[in-house]
Input
Amino acid sequence: MDRIKDLRAAVASELERRGLDNRKFLRQIRAGERDEGPYMIGALACAKLIGETEK
Output
């Protein structure tokens, strides 16, 4: 559970770092309301790939 929260926070933080300033959207990412969006799908796919290569 903590891993998904960390991933959401990392995605939102990186979007902020890159200049996205839509606070509502960033809050939704952090709250898990955008898990089906392209940013989170990509992040989840990367996390899965990294997890598989670490075995």
